Amino acid sequence: RVRRTADEIISLDKKGEDYKKISKALHISQNSIAKVIQTLKKDGSATILQRCPGRPRKLTSQQERLLMRRVKEDRHATSLQQAKAVESQTGYTVSCDTIRRTLKPLLKPMHKKARLEFARPHAEKDEDYWGSILWSDETKITLFGIDGFKTVWHHKVKHGGDSVLMWAA
Q1: Which residue spans traverse the membrane (predicted)?
Q2: Rounded to 5 degrees, what are φ and ψ at 67?
């Protein structure tokens, strides 16, 4: 399709049509028409280069494989540590967000199942219920009781995230 469009632009230009008429006939911007014709006159060939849609890739497939290997070796390393490791091995600066975006597909079906198993029974809970729950992310929480201390018991979540769910008394 792209090659045919370039050929159509060239043939209409050779017939003496101006950019505006070619643009209307082919439903392409005048700038694109001008670039194709100028490229033809300059290089002798007219090709229309199309970019892949979406966000340009920051990491090459080789760098992604390197990152995956590093994650399998040390699953507890933070994205900042992984970014520094990739930079030291490849000499290529990568942000923590890029590391997280690349690792997002590591959520396996068992992780999705565990999240659903938690979400389904809690989906219809009211606001008062959620107000009595304390969520902690790497936060040390000390609760004081009659004897000065109160023990909070929680059970481990098999395939959940890093958060701990605790019910307040």
Answers
A1: none
A2: -60, -45
Burial (0-12, 13-18, 19+ Cβ within 10 Å), 83:
buried
Q: List Cβ neighbours of 48 (8 Å cut-off, separation of 6 or more).
A: 2, 5, 6, 32, 36
- Structural domain boundaries of the chain? 1-43, 57-123
pLDDT tens sequence across 12-50: 888 988 888 888 888 888 888 888 888 888 877 766 655
Buried b (16+ CB within 10 A) or exposed e, 112-125: eebeeeeeeeeeee
For 39, the token pair is 């490229």
* Cut 0.85: pTM above it: no
What the block records as the tokens of 130 is: 């959620």
